[in-house]
Amino acid sequence: MERIVKANDREYNEKFQYADNRIHTSKYSILTFLPINLFEQFQRVANAYFLCLLILQLIPEISSLTWFTTIVPLVLVITMTAVKDATDDYFRHKSDNQVNNRQSEVLIDSKLQNEKWMNVKAGDIIKLENNQFVAADLLLLSSSEPHGLCYVETAELDGETNLKVRQALSVTSELGADINRLARFDGIVVCEAPNNKLDKFMGILSWKDSKHSLNNEKIILRGCILRNTSWCFGMVIFAGPDTKLMQNSGKTKFKRTSIDRLMNALVLWIFGFLICLGIILAIGNSIWESQIGDQFRTFLFWNEGEKSSVFSGFLTFWSYIIILNTVVPISLYVSVEVIRLGHSYFINWDRKMYYSRKATPAEARTTTLNEELGQIEYIFSDKTGTLTQNIMTFKRCSINGRIYGEVPDDLDQKTEITQKKEPVDFSVKSQVDREFQFFDHHLMESIKMGDPKVHEFLRVLALCHTVMSEENSAGELIYQVQSPDEGALVTAARNFGFIFKSRTPETITIEELGTLVTYQLLAFLDFNNTRKRMSVIVRNPEGQIKLYSKGADTILFEKLHPSNEVLLSLTSDHLSEFAGEGLRTLAIAYRDLDDKYFKEWHKMLEDANAATEERDEQIAGLYEEIERDLMLLGATAVEDKLQEGVIETVASLSLANIKIWVLTGDKQETAINIGYACNMLTDDMNDVFVIAGNNAVEVREELRKAKENLSGQNRNVSNGHVVCEKKQQLELDSIVEETVTGDYALIINGHSLAHALESDVKNDLLELACMCKTVVCCRVTPLQKAQVVELVKKYRNAVTLAIGDGANDVSMIKSAHIGVGISGQEGLQAVLASDYSFAQFRYLQRLLLVHGRWSYFRMCKFLCYFFYKNFAFTLVHFWFGFFCGFSAQTVYDQWFITLFNIVYTSLPVLAMGIFDQDVSDQNSMDCPQLYEPGQLNLLFNKRKFFICVLHGIYTSLALFFIPYGAFYNVAGEDGQHIADYQSFAVTMATSLVIVVSVQIALDTSYWTFINHVFIWGSIAIYFSILFTMHSNGIFGIFPNQFPFVGNARHSLTQKCIWLVILLTTVASVLPVVVFRFLKVNLYPTLSDQICRWQKAQKKARPPSSRRPRTRRSSSRRSGYAFAHQEGYGELITSGKNMRTKNPPPTSGLEKTHYNSTSWIENLCKKTTETVSSFSQDKTVKL
Amino acid sequence: MEERPQHRLSRLPDNSALKQQELPAHRLYFTARRVLFVFFTTGIFCLCMGIILILSARSTQEIEINYTRICANCAKLRENASNFDKECTCSIPFYLSGKMMGNVYMYYKLYGFYQNLYRYVRSRSNRQLVGKDIKAVDDCAPFKMSDNKTPIVPCGAIANSMFNDTIILLHNINSSVQIKVPMLKSGLTWWTDKYVKFQNPSSKNLADEFRGTTKPPNWPKPIYDLEKKDPRNNGFLNDDFIVWMRAAAFPTFKKLYGRLNRTHHFIEGLPAGNYSFNITYNFPVTRFHGEKSVVLSTLTWCGGNSLFLGLAYTVTGAITWLASFAMMAIHIMLKNKKISVFHQ
Asked: What is the 3-state secondary structure (H, E, C) of A430-476?
């Protein structure tokens, strides 16, 4: 299938019936809402089950409960869900309308007309302006920039905030902004059918009898934003649902919590249990009918067609299934949802997770996962924007053996010092960046004193980079940086008086302490990952040729002139100090070149450029050749600023036995650097394994070696602290549990990861990774992030959480059990895909340790109680079966059965499920170990469930047999008989309500006034409804529906009935109290201890928990990490990205005119490399 | 991006105790002292209550005479349904060794009669019984209509199976003089039953009202002839009928048949001596292997109760005490053993 689109010809395009640009993410319209929604709702097992039950109840032969016992709750549930779905869909409609009604300028009838987005059709030519959203997938025709270039930001698509370049075909870029010519443009595009590959496009433009091939570089996708380009024209290729953006918006995976799954399994078990009970009772009924009922036939003969006891047993089976269904009432599902909703609101309302600087509160975007937050074992974190602020600041430097910048203190004190200490005042200079702060005045003094080394150092910073400058309307200097490190360095130089002003392809103009100096740019030795350095060769006004270089210390130090020996050792001490602080370092050096030598070299370079074979190798050799005998100037230390509180959060989460893995698309160096900066990697780790194999065999070998190494060291360490990897017994035996002594870290890059994720190496990787304390995966693609998450999810059976901020984290966020998005950033993709969002990484601690823990705790308590309650409530019918000829007679009034779960006992347990707290939030923050029961699934599991069931069975026994015994030969106070069925029903019902209320009162550990109101209120409501339904008035109106008239009045005035109720309560509650008391005394849990302790010293603040060491011990380690891409050097020297204010001179010594379009292809190739295997399930919403 | 301060304020969550989960609350602690206190008091209470109940249960006097076998000939006669119109009486003499003081109640007691079967319990029409619409027999299956399609009044299985023995208690003052012990047939029912739940159609002549209906198949006479002498005890308002219609919870039950009218000779109760029950044996129990008996009983402050409740209270009290001693022992042991200091 291919698509043929003709420009400016709607009639022609209409015959293909391409989708127009209207999108709808909404599910229903007013007419379709009811049928579709009902259909969807009854697809849920629970709802369908209750529907079946309702149908069963409508069959008179087996209906043992009237229909309203099921239909009332069912209708309630269905209505509530329908209302929620309707509101959700309403908002989708609204957002659809908002998007569909955006305006864009469309070329219709040779005129530019404003048209709504939804009316744009394939083949239309539309005009985009700067900072506008792109309406559809366009073929770029022309733009305001030279060479038909235009810049787009693709943050919504792939999460990268750097700008991408797109270039129009030269034939179409000539059209410019000429409306008439554009209107006459009638090219036909033949291209691939709509698909979801963001980085691929294949097509052919036929125009004016010639064909031009089209690729991804000519296409602007919907969802991008046009930047730095005042206008551009494009022809719509794909519209609306056909756009790549919409094609990518796969269905969001429906997430379920492990409690959900357990609950579903338990519900199935319970159904099995019910069927067993039903069978027992049915057999009982058959026997009874044949033995006793047979003789009883005079009083109650059988209807026609039910003449055998077996058939009677069969009917009884169904009747009992109906009666006993209240073990799993519909209200269970509703209550669980309500509780989760409540917990979500608590997250939304939490002021301690509100980030005032960006005015972003935390948000629970999914309301169904809260208790899973209390069970997290693995956290997968993105680095940039999540752990770090994505802000680079120039912190310190070492120039000519002297350190400038603040003195490192203990981190806690450092913040105080920075507050006290005056930053260097830069305000005297006009061209400063106000954000910049530096805390050491000595550097300023050195500059003023004119130290040549210092000047040279700053000159390097101002000259050797790829930054572009621009002046905005206010005359301020704006730097366009593509690497934040460079931005930091150039800004630092600018504030110290070496201001980079402007550049042309062959000059760089800087202002050196007030005087404008123009350097001639002779050569640009670009950065790449193997060179790990970049250099410029410039001629200064004095005519000297200089090579300025910056790069990794490990590389640069090898290139130094031998005379640098002393300085080198001094600087490298400084570098390791910087590295120890987690700063990113670059070494700075220069070389004086001699004219003749340079000319020779340059000629060789030109030759090499012209070469057709092995060009890259030749060039690399030449670069190598000139970058030697360098003179060391010093080193810079840039801080990749961590978000606030990251170190504490990481420390606290690892105390809670949560493993944190860093998955980043960034380079190994930067990733390791951040690992050290946030204390996930430390120098006292026993070993750090780096896996960087290039093929499967190498990777496997490295993994094996690391494992051997690890277990070998283990054997040697005999008295080490034993860290149990995971205390819980895993059902999966594919992973051999091993205890590991000591701390290990694993660092693996994306390339190796691709091999390691292959099936046979997977287990090795996982095993090794799980034994390590820290795992850092660098250079991973979004898809790999998701794969790693899936791996752990699948084989470790662990609950995972992924946290990230960018669109590249979307796949990982979606595949983890819980996805967390960092909000308040520009791109919204991560947040939109996430289940929870907040502005700062540090809130994760509160989310998990407080909200998650509480949610889990409450949900487990709720479920325990709920199952207990309903077993106690329902099993009474089973016991009664033995005394009523298994005739499916209920013990209670039908109304009581209807109302028990939804009115009499729903609110107290909801209040407990929403408000209960075992320990205060402060305590759970201070004592992360409290989190462990959730990970080990201790609070609600099959064992707990059985205990609850046994508890329920015991209670039902007490509830039934105590009244039974008491009623055996009883008479009322006035001699009347009170052992009638109705009195028995009222007694049982009253006892049950009181017993479960006392039980909830015991279970509630945090009594707010709401709990009081609900518990007392429920009992009061029970009695008031009881008396109302047993009143004369209501009987007078509906004598058949309310036959219990006068019952409450007569029964509940009898002393002996109250004695029965009291005894039942005592007998069913006291054993529980004994059990709890003994458990707390003999096997106290941590939270019990904290409760006790909390009570003991209510006033005293808890002592702060073991704070992590913030000082890192330093050892020789390179802090080199540099976020830079290859290819920008070429862009600069070719001058393509410069404004054509004055056209670049065609002549020039170093002008490189080979292969004029190669640079852009290179650049595009390199920028898309990291996202090349973009995951398929990426959701993008507009 | 400039944020307006109002905007900032509006997104900041409220600082209310509810929203911040800081509601003032009372935490429930199971401290040893509290738990033990509760247990000891509960134990004492249960023990006392148990002893009181046992004592009072023992103070009641009760005579039960099972006449299923004694009146064997009648039982045999009733087994054949075709003999329904043949009367059969039976006299059962017994000796009351001690006098029964106070109010004496006479009950009939049935064994193995399942008044709690699902279909049985439902087989009645409250609309009919309240006198509103005597032809409302919808719920009465399988006794809705007679064979000639006239509605049965009172319809339903419960009404049809009504206990219809007549029991007369005679006191043999000496070998020749027998006096009938006066029994009240009023006040046997709940007030609400008599005055709300059961109402005759409002008419002087009940028979007219019930025209076009038929009596239940097992009944010898129609509902309006149950007690012709006393209109307030006739029709649906008949006490025996109302008592029967209040279905029992278990297959063994006793229902009130009469109260001793404490006059003349019986002002203090039943004096010791020879008595006999004269029973018109109508109700067939051997057909369903049931039994029936007649019970004379006095009451205590909490009605007529069996030993069960007293025993249950005593046992619960005793267990509670045992448990509290055990718990105390464990607690003291643990307290001595370790210093419960919270290790941070």
From this structure: CCCCCCCCCCCHHHHHHHHHCCHHHHHHHHHHHHCCCCEEEECCCCC
ipTM score: 0.94
Q: Where are the alpha helices (DSSP H) in A42-67?
A: 45-58
Rounded to an integer, what distance in angstroms lies between the CA atom of residue A1042 and that of residue A1036? 9
Report pLDDT digits (tens) over A93-152.
888 888 888 888 888 888 888 888 888 888 889 998 888 888 889 999 988 877 788 888
Q: Which of residues 194-213 of B touch A (CB under 8 A)?
A: 196-197
Q: Name the pairing type of β-strands A103-108 and A125-129.
A: antiparallel
CB contact under 8 A, B196 and A968: no
Instruction: Single out the residue of A336, A357, A501 nearest to residue A901, CA to CA.
Output: A336
- pLDDT tens for residues A581-640? 778 888 999 999 888 999 999 898 888 888 877 888 888 888 888 888 889 999 998 888
Residue with tokens 């392809």: A505
Q: How close A1062 gets to chain B, by Cα (Å)?
A: 10
* SS (HEC) of A915-972: HCCCCCHHHHHHCHHHHHHHHCCCCCCHHHHHHHHHHHHHHHHHHHHHHHHHHCCCEC
- Is residue A172 classed as helix, strand or coil in its secondary structure? helix
Written as one string, the DSSP assignment of A792-829 is: HHHHH---EEEEESSGGGHHHHHHSSEEEEE-SSS--H
Q: Do B53 and A1059 touch (CB under 8 A)?
A: yes
Mention every residue, 6+ apart, whose C-beta is less than 8 A from residue A273.
A327
Single pTM value for the model: 0.83
Task: Inspect the interface and report whether the beta carbons of A883 and B26 lie closer than 8 Å.
Answer: no
**Burial annotation A71-106 (CB, 10 A radius, 16+ → b, else e):** bebbeebbeebbeebeeebeebbeebeebbeeebbb
Tokens of A702: 């490295």
Nearest residue to A638 via CA among A693, A677, A590 = A677
**For testing contact with chain B, the best of A347, A884, A912 (most B CBs within 10 A):** A884
Task: Please give the Cα distance from A451 to A120 (Å, whole number).
Answer: 64
**What element of type H or E holds A607?**
helix A595-610
Chain B 50-69, residues with CB within 8 Å of chain A CB atoms: 53
Q: From the CA atom positions of chain B, what is the Rg in Å?
A: 31
Which CA distances in Å does B286 have to A1132, A1133, B113, B292? 113, 116, 11, 9
Kindly state whether A60 is in contact with chain B, defined as any CB-CB distance less than 8 angstroms.
no
Measure the CA–CA gap between A168 and A149, rounded to whole angstroms: 6
* B31 three-state secondary structure: coil
DSSP B158-223: HHHT----EEEEEEESSSS-EEEPPEE-SS-S-HHIIIII----S-S-HHHHTTT-B--TT-SS-G
Q: Which residue has the tokens 């009404």?
A: B159
Helix (H) or strand (E) holding A203: strand A203-207
User: Alpha-carbon torsion A91, A92, A93, A99, what sign?
Assistant: positive
A1035 to chain B: which residues are within 8 Å by CB?
A: 126, 130, 196-197
Structure tokens at A427: 């305000």
CB A365 within 8 A of CB A835: yes
- A54 three-state secondary structure: helix
Whether residue A975 and residue B115 make contact (CB cut-off 8 A), yes or no, is no
A 552-591 → B contacts, CB under 8 A: none
Q: Does B306 touch chain A (CB under 8 A)?
A: yes
Q: Report the interhelical angle of B32-59 vs A1055-1082 (nearest 10°).
A: 150
* Calpha distance A1110→A823 (Å, rounded): 27
Cβ-nearest to A1063 among B193, B313, B327:
B313
Our answer to whether residue A209 is catalytic in this structure is no
